[in-house]
Amino acid sequence: MNNTLKKNSVCAVIPFYNEAGTIAEVIERTLNFVDCVIAVNDGSTDGSADLIRNIKRLVLISNATNRGKGLALNRGFSESIKANFRITVTLDADLQHEPELILKLIEGIENFDIIIGNRLGNLKTMPLHRIASNKLTSFLLSIKTGQRLIDTQSGFRAYRTKILNDILPSSPGFEAESEILINASRKDYKIGFVRVPTIYGLEKSKMKSFQAICGFIKILMR
To answer: What is the pLDDT of residue 144?
Structure first.
């Protein structure tokens, strides 16, 4: 990675697993708003990584096997910390997050340490089980952290890179994003939210409900 990147630069960390249909488009659109994309291939078996190898300003990290979103995020965050980016953005690889709204996250982080894209302003396209799950986890995490947290399941976020070492999750799966918020609250970091659209298509979620619930309960009880 180019170590001469400006200290006020922005990178995006995009973990992905079997997203051949969308990964290249997500990265290309994201690169319009950031200096570099760190894509973490979490053991894909559908050739996703081969589709993006030659994209400029891309750092590709690959896990030999599928290890979970939390571990993929950690690998991306470590690379961002090493390269001294000022802001680290995270987004999903399945087009549920609009890369064009990255600027909105960056704007918001001027007054916070973490900014989360809140999709709960318009719930018409969000499946009912997702609404229930999100509202419950957000409620429980608000009690746990003492901060009012909204849409804690959103992976569309911006972080001040300098705080990442303090909040890295130990959880391997999707519950890692909840653990990050708990870690941040314990360090008194400020968490803010900006409204973003709710986008759900025909994509199949990679989240395994029972595993995710167990992981969430585990981090909530710590």
So the answer is: 93
Write out the two tokens for 44. 């894909």
pTM given for the model: 0.86
- What is the CATH number assigned to the segment(s) 10-220? 3.90.550.10
Take residue 115 and report the two structure tokens written for it.
């900014």
Question: From the centroid of its chain, how far is CA 170?
Answer: 15
Please provide the DSSP assignment of 113-139 as one string.
SEEEEE-TT--TTS-HHHHHHHHHHHH
More confident residue, 133 or 42: 42
Tell me the backbone φ, ψ of residue 66, rounded to 5 degrees: -70, 115
Residues 105, 30 contacting (CB under 8 angstroms): no
Question: Strand order in 157-160's β-sheet?
Answer: 58-63, 36-42, 10-16, 87-90, 157-160, 114-118, 191-195
pLDDT greater than 70 at residue 142: yes
pLDDT tens, position by position, 94-133? 999 999 999 999 999 989 999 999 987 665 666 676 677 7
11, 85 Cβ separation under 8 angstroms:
yes
- Alpha-carbon distances, residue 140 vs 45, 49, 111, 151, 189 (angstroms): 36, 37, 25, 12, 18
Q: Extract the tokens encoding 194.
A: 């900006």
